[in-house]
Amino acid sequence: MRSLVIGWLLCLSWPLQAALVQSEQGELTRTKNQSTSDAGGTPAAELRTQQIESARAEKEANLQSEAEPKLQHDIDWVQSSFPYKLLTSQLGGFGIGLGHSGAGSGFAIGPQFSRSDLLSGNLSIRIAARGSTNKSYLGRVDLSLHGLLSGHAFLNFSAAHRDLSEMPYYGAGPDSEKSGRSDYRLEDTDVELRPGITALRHVRAGLIGGFVKVNVGPGHATRYISAERQFTPETAPGIDRQTGFWRGGGFLEYDWRDRDWAPTSGGKYAAEYSRYLDRNVERFSFLRLDFDAVQYIPLFNHTRVIALHGATSLTKTNSSQRVPFYLQPTLGGAETLRGYRAFR
What is the DSSP string of 271-338? Predict the structure, then answer.
């Protein structure tokens, strides 16, 4: 019995010793493997770093600029071409002007000079001359001094001469008919000076002083009757006698558009008073009052815009004076009523 108990105790102690020996051997093996890993880790890290640096150097050696889209390349080529710079006055301000000079002038072309960066940006100048296919001619000079009195004053000067061979005339008043169109030749010279001040932000006010010389004659068009053959001096005042005018007055405007060209928001509201004094025949002196208002309503993040435009022109004379037909207010055309014939 004593032998059995001793044998059983020996059997119990043997697995414990075996486990201790196995545990010690495992720790020894783990320590050895860790030492081996630490000893070989440094060369592996250096090798990886060298591979990264080599790949980076190879990429830098083979770098290429991003290919420009073909459309952008074509646009840049057009904008850098001589014809484009000539049409946009980018050759030191010199260029060629295309288009028409108003209703009755036909397609026109001619040289022009335009600069807006003179005197540190305080002087803008534009000189243009055009001739058209229907033998109409235009010459114009515009000067603008801004930034006077620390930005609170400006001075605008303009001088223009026109010779338009086919000016349309339908007769006076709202009862004129589209079928009653005639044409006449209009030759005028207009010199004007406009000094003004910027009283408040977006608000400008100023004076108007100028001289106008007008001459009318038979029209050049063959498809329309000449105006002097269809209308009398009673129905078209001034058709038989031309004169010159002194012009004086003033203007007031409020302009809060986001930009002058192709605005998408804001508005511009203007009022102008002018007095025309007949300096030759003393029969055509009159007063004129013009109101013009335009409001721009942006849509879809300024990608679309609704423009609301309203305007009126009023004239007044005394009993002995009349407004000459070539200075009477008209309606129609792109500037006043689109889709309606100009000078109705």
Answer: EEEEEEEESSSS---EEEEEEEEEEEEEETTTTEEEEEEEEEEEEE--TT----GGGS----BTTTBT
Nearest to 165 by CA among 139, 135, 189, 195: 135
Model pTM score: 0.74
> Of 267, 253, 263, 260, nearest to 308 (Cα)?
267
Q: Furthest-apart CA pair in the chain: how many Å? A: 160
Q: What does the pLDDT profile of the chain (344 residues) look like in tens digits?
A: 444 444 444 444 444 444 434 444 444 444 445 444 444 445 777 788 888 888 888 777 777 666 667 777 778 887 788 888 887 778 888 999 887 766 656 788 999 999 999 998 899 999 999 999 888 999 999 999 988 998 899 999 999 999 999 999 999 888 888 888 999 999 999 999 999 999 898 999 999 999 999 999 999 888 899 999 999 999 999 999 889 999 999 999 999 999 988 999 999 999 999 999 999 988 999 999 999 999 999 999 989 999 999 999 999 999 899 999 999 998 887 777 877 888 87
d(CA 242, CA 248): 20
Query: First vs last Cα of the chain: how many Å apart?
Result: 140
CB of 113 closer than 8 Å to CB of 130 = no
**152-327: CATH topology:** Porin (2.40.160)
Decide if 210 contacts 192 (C-beta within 8 A): yes
- The structural domains of the chain, with segments of one domain joined by +, span 152-327
Given a contact cutoff of 8 angstroms between Cβ atoms, the answer to whether 159 and 168 are in contact is no
